[in-house]
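Field reference: sequence -> structure
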Amino acid sequence: MYKFFSSKEAEVRYRELGLWSEQTFYDIFREKAVRLQDKKAIVDARRTYTYKELLELVDNLAGNLIDIGLSPGDVIACQFPNWGVLSMMHLASNRIGVLCLPLHDGWREAEVGHLLKKSNARMVIVPHLYRGFDYPAMIASLRNDLPNIERVYSIGGVTEGSLPFEKLLEPSGKSDAEIDAFRPDTNLPGAIMVSSGTTALPKISLFSTNNLMSMIKYYFESVKLDENDIGAAIAPAGTGATGYIFPTFSLLLTGGTTYILEHWSDPKEAIDLIIDNKCTCATAIPTQMTMMIPLLADMKPENFPALTFFSNAGAPLPYETGKEIEGKMGCKVQGMYGTSDAGAPYMVSVDDPQEKRLKTVGRPLHDCDVDLWDANEKKVPEGGIGEVVWRTAMKSYGYLNDDEETAKTFTEDGFFYKSGDLGKVDEDGYLQIVGRVKDMILRGGRNICPKTSEELLIGHPAVAQVSVAAMPDFRLGERACAFVVLNPGNSLTFGEMVQFLKEKKIAVWELPERLEIIEQMPMSAGGKIMKNKLTGIITTKLKNEEEVKIA
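Structure field:
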């Protein structure tokens, strides 16, 4: 049913290294829960779960999922806000070999319909109402095109066509032995992560328990996570590692405690979450960290006495943002590089020097095979720029029910994942991401990397956010356009922008040739700026300007 992207030799190697084992996520969690009992496991906006309570609910849920006829390999789609119930579903699914498909709570018919159809999901669980939106009604509107959906459960209330999720949390009457009969093979697909869809509809990546657990083990080593840690989960949970695996699931598997920010609307709420709960660690996407900076102006490390590290991933973190976070919050900024499609082969260690932590994504994790390739899939010369590729203990099987997309993204033998990111390695072996293969702007035959001017412009006092995207040009093919969100009460002209960049000694041909001030960046569910939408905006604007000229 699934194409395996590993060899027997690789499996033996990963087991000898302790990266792969026979333990499921549920096994690891149960060990912690039996020992820790009344310790807080997860605290969200709705309730607090102790380890004992969470274990009981996971066991009840697993038994009831068996009773309603779910079998190993079946998919359950879960569209939740940042709630602890996602971990509950993940662990219960993992106990019986079912796959939990997380959906971002902001996705609507286009993304949800696509993912439910692509996954052949048999069951959907949604909130009854959340932030004024009727999720069961959305699922009902899609069901004519989704013959595999057998049941829809809603949390906090029911409508016609949905069943009460709370019934699944009642004791099932099944013994541990009966449930254990469904225990999955840790080398079979046991987890799903969904890409955030910056340029297309989201894709569904399949990981075995061992794949995903190896990534978590590398994270433990990089940040020295243990059961004394108290985490702040700030990023959206529905799209992968940054919002869920690192800040919430990892803490559960070490015996720590996680406080979850339900919805990102005001950076102050995230800062208060860290302070009020004496969090020792936090995880967010770079955009969120940048938005916190103005609120940290009058703060000092004494305001965050417990905070030791702040993890981020999902997009490049501006150097100045990282430096401000460290200076004001008294912690170390820790970054990771990878994808929801194939894991994270590079992580910065909290022991790395500041310049390496803030200007690179780290060195390759031990026993990860990584490389930089040119367009012909040949290794680039030392010091050169190439596409980042890897094969690791954490790399996925590819995309669920999508052989065509899998063939585009993985090498023919299935071993190497092609990231689409351009990187270069410094003299100490640390990787710097310099752009995306598709984001390079081709101006009259010369490649322009947007990241260069973006990293400089974010240092301008008027600039809150910046993204440099391609705009069409009849003569040169493409030119660079800088899109800027301003800090409140500030202004910026094109001339001021150019002068600022010239003072930074940027090459003349890399200067953006237009400035667009916008209210907000178009963002994917995972918090990445959607450059294709920016290019669409400027393309339409140029067309309208041309029509006005002609008229």
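Note: DSSP finds 17 helices and 28 strands in the chain.
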